[in-house]
Amino acid sequence: MSDLMTRVLRRCSAARSPRQRTWKHLSPLLRLLILTQLAFNVGFYAVLPFLATHLGTAIGMAGWMVGFVLGLRTFSQQELFVVGGWLVDRHGVRPLVLAGCVLRIAGFAWLGYAEATWSVIGAVLLIGFAAALFSPAVESEVARQAVIWEEEGHGSRTRVLALLSAAGQAGAFVGPLLGALLLAVDFRTVCLAGAGVFALVLAGHMWLMPQHIPGRVRIRERGGMRVLLRNRRFLALCCAYGTYLLAYNQLYLALPDEVQRATGSQEALSWLFALSSLLVVCAQLPMTRWASDRLDLRRSMATGLLIIAAGFAVVAAALPAGWTGTWALLPAAGYVALLTLGQMLVVPAARAWVPDLAEDGRLGLYTGALSSISGLIVLIGSSASGSLLDLGLPPAVPWLVLAALPALAVALLPHRPESAEGEKEGGPVP
């Protein structure tokens, strides 16, 4: 028994050591940015999982309008990422992070007091625009630092980007639990708590974020957008990534509807979000190591998209049985698990691919454009999926449609040429 226990402990130690080595070799700036992602998601996910129910019950919005508002939030965030990325290239990381935190504080406070539809839309737009400022700044700088980390011989850049995803999901794990606890008071309290988290982030960055980051050159010349729009490989990546984001957005639209159908309430929703976040926190780095040893970036994204499609198919297959009660949540839990596994392959691979496709000095712009183009897909797709759920179709049909989308998106992925230089030239997409 003691020998068995010794072997188990050795394996656990071996599983932890790559994560410890990765964190140990990170620069102080990378550590700050990764912890920033953690804090961002605590504040954000304390509010967002409960927004759809609040809009449908307290505000009284129709299903299509709820879907539109959720899509508008994603659109205002993702579509304006390209503006935020362009501003990062011109003005640096620190000003954009600070400005975004200020706007996010104002947006959450506004949402807590919003009652009319126009007021909700205004608050949601402000919340989205705030993220369009700070997220491209954080993500592009982490990607740039990850390339440097790789060039210094510490390992694949995807490990750093996977650590960023794991930190974000740790925040997404804590956020819904905090929100569920505060929801016992009311939705306004949840929003104000989210604003308070961003106030703490703002204070921390005013103190710790350097005024100028070594090696980051500010670009003043125009014309970067024209080159970007001719980069067909990059645009193909954006479309495939947008399909993933549309699938992920169903956590806030289709999943609450299914949980309500199965149990008559949405009490289990926070636990399903916790399941997703816990999976990423525990498995993101092992999954990334596995993928980096066996798959290139394209195959990693393709595998992830197919796994996501399987998650929707699990719910579609179970719905005709009409199960209700606690056990009826198992298909939804399977969907969440498979969506999360697919996400763990798709997100680090997409972020790691962008520096190879980006024009020199324009990493912020390309990072922002990745989110902006995919945000347009989410806006259109979210409204359509919200209407699909309201049409009175057989329950499995919307889930089958949603399963088909990520599977079809695999064909959009560009094939990687032998050199990164070839990718920046924007050759034809097969």
What is the topology?
Elements: H1 2-24, H2 28-45, H3 51-58, H4 63-78, H5 81-91, H6 93-113, H7 117-151, H8 157-182, H9 187-208, H10 224-229, H11 232-249, H12 254-263, H13 269-294, H14 297-318, H15 330-357, H16 363-390, H17 396-409, H18 420-424
Helix pairs in contact: 2-7, 2-8, 2-9, 3-4, 4-7, 4-16, 5-6, 5-7, 5-16, 6-7, 6-9, 7-8, 7-15, 7-16, 8-9, 8-13, 8-15, 11-15, 11-16, 11-17, 13-15, 14-15, 14-17, 15-16
Please give a structural write-up.
By secondary structure, the protein is mostly helical. It has a single domain, classed as Up-down Bundle (Growth Hormone, Chain: A), CATH 1.20.1250. Helices cover 78% and strands 0% of the residues. The protein has 18 helices and no strands. The longest helix is centred in the first third of the chain and has 35 residues, at 117-151. Residues 1-20 and 418-430 have low confidence and may be disordered.
Short description:
The protein has 18 helices and no strands. The protein starts with a helix and ends in a 6-residue tail after the last helix.
CATH architecture: Up-down Bundle
Residue fraction in strands: under 5%
Count of runs of 4 or more consecutive helical residues: 18
Q: List unreliable stretches of 5+ residues.
A: 1-20, 418-430
Largest sheet: none
Radius of gyration: 21 Å
Mean pLDDT: 81
End-to-end distance? 56 Å
- Give the tally of structural domains: 1
Annotated CATH topology? Growth Hormone, Chain: A
| Helix amount | over 70%
CATH superfamily caption: MFS general substrate transporter like domains
> What spatial form do the alpha-carbon principal axes imply?
globular
- State the CATH class: Mainly Alpha
